[in-house]
């Protein structure tokens, strides 16, 4: 019995230490971190992102998604950018990440920053800045991005599978996943609003159309007319076609996503799940009627997410190339 008690004590202490170290690292971030060491860093990143968005506004969504997928695995350390190596499959090659895009924008921004300030600005910070800039450039909200993150040296596909929220997740599972990252049910509701932009592959939601409970049935929470439309876009077995997550508004960062969720037209089961909890359900309806509240809360939630598990000070490194750890 004493042995079991000691073991539980060790577990609790380990968890507390992880929280304390994470909080200490997050305190190492600040707005304007590169003001003296690379004063044009944020301008260079923004100009690079603006150049790509001007040519193709759909790039804003992949940049936002990169930041989300980076932060939920090992914290916001740029590990999602690393290539796989012999004997280790990296995050970007995990099943949930195979549809990630926008790496070329991060690489271009990093190359431009390296010309101005070699070895100073982390890839993790560039991902955070590019996500904010992409959203703002398509008339979405802006928020102050704290910088000072350093880049991690490890990237694991299995950790991506274990840590990323599932598009098929139920509300309890989603809330627990967010809670493990220090995020609340409110953060879940507001960050889900990022589904107002971008596209999704059919395999991310086709189970809702053809085999929801394993009996060849449709997800009953999905509006019938919308389900019929999705079936026409994603025939049974189609895993490669893509559809807009917010039809007709895939490059408009607004509150139409919440209106669709409220009407049974959220694309993912995880979208529909927001209606099964009082906190998240109430926020769905609040954001439907108030873009200003959504924009304000989105910026706050992005700031919280951007502080998850960051490496600061002497931890980690400043990669020379975002896809490779330094030699």
TrEMBL record:
Signal peptide extent: 1-26
Pfam families: peroxidase
Residues binding Ca(2+) 1, per UniProt: 70, 73, 75, 77, 79, 91
Record field: catalytic activity: 2 a phenolic donor + H2O2 = 2 a phenolic radical donor + 2 H2O
Necessary cofactors: Ca(2+); heme b
Enzyme type, top EC level: oxidoreductase
EC numbers on record: 1.11.1.7
Coiled coil: none
Gene3D superfamilies: 1.10.520.10, Peroxidase, domain 2
GO terms for cellular component: extracellular region
Residues under site feature: Transition state stabilizer: 65
GO biological process: hydrogen peroxide catabolic process; response to oxidative stress
Disulphide bridges: 38-117, 71-76, 123-322, 202-234
GO molecular function (one): metal ion binding
PANTHER family per UniProt: PEROXIDASE 25-RELATED
Family note: Belongs to the peroxidase family. Classical plant (class III) peroxidase subfamily. Belongs to the peroxidase family. Ascorbate peroxidase subfamily.
Protein name: Peroxidase
């Amino acid at each position: 019995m004493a042995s079991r008690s000691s073991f539980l004590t060790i577990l609790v202490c380990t968890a507390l230490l992880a929280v304390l170290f994470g909080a200490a690292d997050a305190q190492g971030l600040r707005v304007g971190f590169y003001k003296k060491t690379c004063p044009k860093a944020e301008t260079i990143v923004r100009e690079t992102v603006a150049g790509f968005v001007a040519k193709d506004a759909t790039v804003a969504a992949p940049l936002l998604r990169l930041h989300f997928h980076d932060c939920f695995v090992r914290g916001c350390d740029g590990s999602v950018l690393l290539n796989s190596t012999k004997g280790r499959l990296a995050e970007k090659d995990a099943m949930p990440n195979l549809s990630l895009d926008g790496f070329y924008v991060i690489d271009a921004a990093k190359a431009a920053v390296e010309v101005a300030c070699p070895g100073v600005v982390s890839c993790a910070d560039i991902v955070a800045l590019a996500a904010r800039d992409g959203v703002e450039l398509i008339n979405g909200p802006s928020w102050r991005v704290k910088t000072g993150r350093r880049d991690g040296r490890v990237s694991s596909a299995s950790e991506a599978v274990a840590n990323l929220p599932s598009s098929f997740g139920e509300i309890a599972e989603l809330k627990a996943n967010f809670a493990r990252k220090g995020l609340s049910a409110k953060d879940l509701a507001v960050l889900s609003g990022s589904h107002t932009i971008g596209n999704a592959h059919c395999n991310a939601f086709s189970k809702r159309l053809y085999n929801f409970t394993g009996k060849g049935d449709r997800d009953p929470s999905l509006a019938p007319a919308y389900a019929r439309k999705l079936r026409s876009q994603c025939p049974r077995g189609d895993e490669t076609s893509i559809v807009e997550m917010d039809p007709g508004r895939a490059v408009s960062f607004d509150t139409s996503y919440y209106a669709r969720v409220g009407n049974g037209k959220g694309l993912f089961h995880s979208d529909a799940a927001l209606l099964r909890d009082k906190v998240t359900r109430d926020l769905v309806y609040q954001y439907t009627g108030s873009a200003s509240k959504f924009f304000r809360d989105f910026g706050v939630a992005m700031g919280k997410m951007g502080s998850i598990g960051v490496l600061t000070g002497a931890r980690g490194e400043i990669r020379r190339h975002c896809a490779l750890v330094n030699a």
